[in-house]
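Q: I have 346 residues here and want to know how they pack in 3D. Can you give me a structure?
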Amino acid sequence: MISRRRLTQAMTAAAAAGTAGLLGTGTATADTGAAPAAATTGRTVRDLGPVRRIRTDVLDVAYHDVGPADGTPVILLHGWPFSPVGSYAEVASALAPRGYRCLVPYLRGHGETRFLRADTFRSGEQAALGADLIAFMDALRVPRALFAGYDWGGRAGDVAAALWPERCTGLVSVNGYLIQNLAVAQKPLAPQLEEGYWYFFYFLTERGREGLRRNREDLARVVWRRNSPDWQFTEAEFAQAARLWSNPDYVDVVIHSYRHRLAAAPGAPRYASLERRLLDQPKITVPAVTLDGAADGVIPPTDGSGYAAHFSGPWRHHVVPGAGHNLPQERPDAFAAAVLEVDGMR
């Protein structure tokens, strides 16, 4: 569990950034004064309690519900190929005593989440992830919530915050503005960035699909090590996450996600209108805190200026030392502090 001292340190560091990171000032702040990452070797694997289930129009969603039932809703959204339990057990244990109801869903194709119909297209596109989030809230009768996530989960939160701002009270997004610009999907990035996206191109091939089907654990281990090179995860933490990848729709959803983002596969017709809206790169108008891990092996940390224009509401940016791509699990204190920070910006 995160100690009160470490959480307080992280909150103090976030508060010290003050309002200098607001878009109105034209600057962003980088938090480099927080405590270093704790050693993970031998750490006890925590959990999030029982898995609950709720049905939407498309999915039977598995999720965890931690904290007071009447607490401030915050939806914690995991990435690929990581575990919502591993990523958010420490974060939820810090937020729940402070009055937050932490809802932690398993994304489509992961864990015990299942499609309701066999004939539903197994889409992994960004519009589907954002729509899933809103449908999850509808099913739980949660009118508004704070969204916080990274990787796939961060993208789901960004999409939902941009298209349904009335449902979002605030946003924490690791690696900034994550809505994909499919209009420039074929435009190459700098080679050093393309290198980190090796699996995007692997998954474009049928060899990559078969490799994911046969070697999902070994492939995920490579991604964990490359994307978070300083993270000393335990075998117990990895084994906990590996249980998610036995989902029968895992391969189809993952493959479609990466092929669609490179404009190599069509999207599902039910999300076409949403994808057209996302082509305009809509602004995020709700209060937002963006985080970069200083040790992210796939997306190098920045000062946030490259995507600042996409945030038209109150916005702050921090670089988190000792964190890689799976920032909530590697630095849960900093992630929990960001949730508290953005909630205070409303």
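Q: Anything worth noting?
A: The first helix runs from residue 4 to 16. The longest strand covers residues 59-66.
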